Amino acid sequence: MPATAAASTPRTAPQWNAARLMEYSERHLTLTARSGAPAEAQLATRLLENVVLYRSWEHSHGRLMQAVARAPRQTASVELRKVAFLTLHRKAPFEYLRERHITGVARRQLIQALFGESQSYGRQLVREHEAYVSSACSLLCADSLCSAVLHDDHFCEALAKYEEAYAEYYRVYCDSLLTEQTGETAPMSALLPYLRYQLKIIRDHMLAGANQHTVLKDLEALYAASGDTQKLPVLRPPQ
Length: 239
What we know:
By secondary structure, this protein is mainly α. It contains 10 helices and no strands. Helix 4 runs antiparallel to helix 7.
């Protein structure tokens, strides 16, 4: 996702209505499909070319944009940041399956461990793929709105680092679930409470507009530590 190192001051969100936010999002996806980075262009193209999925995305993304539009002018940027975090988290399950090449019995076991057995396995898998495409496209739009409209490039940079750290956390989480399916104890599972807590603190700081230099340092430390077995120091909330 785009992010720049140039210093900038986040601006108060303009009092846009939901229709204008949707118009911006749709235009951004069209431009991304035509000339975006390959992975982002592929995602946008998949959404735009699937009529049923696009209509579903219109509905879900429209609700998110309505929440931003309903927020008071001074807090609209916070609502937009919440959208970025929400969609980033929602795309994680299928992203994990794809990037870790989880197939066969292991994939079925993981889907059931994550979502239960209320639906058939095939239907759950289709739902998660659709949620991945839809959420990833909404994240592209929210990130672009933060950058192009609010000129909050520091947040975009921190969000890219947060995405890396969250992917590491989710990898540890799902790897642990798969290990437990075999009846063994996952050694990395002891890290999960620390990772969850630290990510929450960092997320709260980012939503509150905390000093992004400090946030980036915390994220870099968390990202570096989450890949090995050391016990992570707990970040304390500001007093």
